[in-house]
Amino acid sequence: xxxxxxxxxxxxxxxxxxxxxxxxxxxxxxxxxxxxxxxxxxxxxxxxxxxxxxxxxxxxxxxxxxxxxxxxxxxxxxxxxxxxxxxxxxxxxxxxxxxxxxxxxxxxxxxxxxxxxxxxxxxxxxxxxxxxxxxxxxxxxxxxxxxxxxxxxxxxxxxxxxxxxxxxxxxxxxxxxxxxxxxxxxxxxxxxxxxxxxxxxxxxxxxxxxxxxxxxxxxxxxxxxxxxxxxxxxxxxxxxxxxxxxxxxxxxxxxxxxxxxx
Length: 262
What we know:
By secondary structure, this protein is of the alpha/beta class. It has one domain (about 10-200): Rossmann fold. The chain is built from 8 helices and 10 strands. Strand 2 (about 30-35), helix 2 and strand 3 (about 60-65) form a beta-alpha-beta unit. Helix 1 (about 10-25) crosses helix 2 (about 40-50). The N and C termini lie close together (about 10 Å).
């Protein structure tokens, strides 16, 4: 594991984008695992800037971590009415680069048979040769994707019930301002499992802000536990990079940083 401490969110995003760009330049047909949420937006903006300077996305393939069950992309709707992660990815990233539509994979929240879809998604990752680099954030309770506390560290892509903290966070961040009631917001999601994530060739986890400092320390230095699913990074056998801004790194011990810090 390598831990990089950036001075701020912008530097964190630039460092992450550079690592991804270096992989794309080295392996133009690489497979990227992508994440949603506020944390990776800066990284996507920097990748868009690099694309305008010549970075070619035409041969890459992407697989997103998760999607709400019961929601699907509808580009005819305004952003405020379509809270799908598919919409997020197109708005924040895909529509700004030269990726081919057929190379984009996002869990289908409108799948008629979600369980069969989950099996299909796993097979598509395998057919693509596996994920070369999986981008990750970390939830306030230490979850990766929608692998809520208590999720098995060997779990695969599946339908997951969302716990109260996730529902509370999502309601405040997305649904409240859209006028959607709590009972009408999604309570389930399709998510890659921890076992699926751990099969990537490399992973890169980002976190910023003082609110993430305690959970980052638990994930990186605490025991490996299903209650903090991001702690599975300690089990990762490939290249694991963690990029934190100064605030998110504040609770990491000096001993840990002397061992893993860049």
